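tool=predict chain=A
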Amino acid sequence: MELIVVLPIDLMVRRRTDCYCGTGTFISMCLSAVALLWLTGPGIVIAVTRRRRRTARQTHCGRCGQAKGPSPGLVCPECGYSWVA
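tool=predict ok
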């Protein structure tokens, strides 16, 4: 995998006669930004949706999704699932 990423940059650097610092730096910054988004994207989505999932678990039945309502009993009126842990 590393060879696939480095080989085009290596060929580009070998062909140039002037300074390649700016181009190489820009390419490595772009690759780093893509890697950052690729690796942290799922973690960000999980962190954002965690509160929503926890709220849904507290206000809805875990089995059928029926809303518990303002004064829920011990079981779900729709499917009979026990809400008490």
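The chain has two helices and no strands. The mean pLDDT is 79.
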